[in-house]
Amino acid sequence: MPTLLIGLLQNILPGVINRVLPPEKMSEEDAAKLQNELTKTLIEQNWNEIEAEYKDRDSARNLAAQDIAKGNAFTGILSATVRPAWGYGALALVVYSVLYTVPISAQLNDIIQTVLFFFFGGRTIEKVIPHITEAIKR
């Protein structure tokens, strides 16, 4: 994981520094120091703690699955469909808004963004992180 992040950030950080802190505000030497400091911080990060957190999340999922098994069919259906229903419902609102040029209020837009970030972003992270950590271990 650190190798992947360090490589990505070394490519991204100079561009971000130039946009946020242009040469008039930060010298090249200071920008290089900042990039080196970030790289050092990533290398010193305790990746075992991060991996343990993902394992903890997985065990929490397994515990939730055991709790679901204790319920009846109705509670099982609800626990399996509520999160996707909100995610796909929010996505449908966005698609409808785009297709029919219907404006979405600022408050509703914030709610929709939050739902989409949590549903699709969370699912992506849950599916991708185990593959990344496995690839790094090799």
What does this structure look like?
By secondary structure, the chain is mostly helical. It folds into 2 domains: about 1-45, no CATH class; about 70-138, no CATH class. It is about 85% helix and about 0% strand. Helix 1 (about 1-20) packs antiparallel against helix 2. The model has no long low-confidence stretch (mean pLDDT about 75). The termini are close together.
| Biggest beta sheet attributes | none
Please give the count of helices.
5
- Measured distance between first and last alpha carbons: 11 Å
Q: What would you report as the Rg, rounded to the nearest angstrom?
A: 21 Å
Count of β-strands: 0
Strand content: under 5%
Mean pLDDT across all amino acids: 76
User: Could you list the spans in which at least 5 consecutive residues all have pLDDT below 50?
Assistant: none
The helix-strand sequence is: HHHHH
User: In percent, how helical is the residue content?
Assistant: over 70%
Oligomerization category of the chains in this entry? single chain
